[in-house]
Write a structure and sequence with these properties.
Number of helices: 3
Structural class: mainly alpha
Helix content: 55-70%
Strand content: under 5%
Oligomer: single chain
Distance between the termini: 42 Å
Order of helices and strands: HHH
Shape: elongated
């Protein structure tokens, strides 16, 4: 992991701290999560934030082996 110094406006810093507390994350984890969602939203403007979050959660579930691929025969 690479460390960088970043300057934030106080209001944004307060919002990130609140977001971290609500999601039970440390500040760095909350910032990484918010950045991933924000970058994905920029790259995929047709998707809502909720859809992007659902995709990320599904990817985590798949990596953890909690879901499997669905074949057309199962529909």
């Amino acid at each position: 992991m690479i460390r960088k110094t970043v300057a934030f406006e106080k209001e944004l810093l307060d919002e990130l701290n609140l977001f971290a507390k609500k999601d039970q994350r440390d500040f760095s984890g909350a910032l990484r999560y918010a950045l991933r969602i924000g970058l994905a939203a920029i790259e995929n403007p047709e998707l809502t934030i909720e859809e992007i979050k659902d995709i990320f959660e599904a990817a985590v579930d798949r990596q953890a082996g909690r879901v499997s691929d669905l074949s057309p025969d199962q529909i």
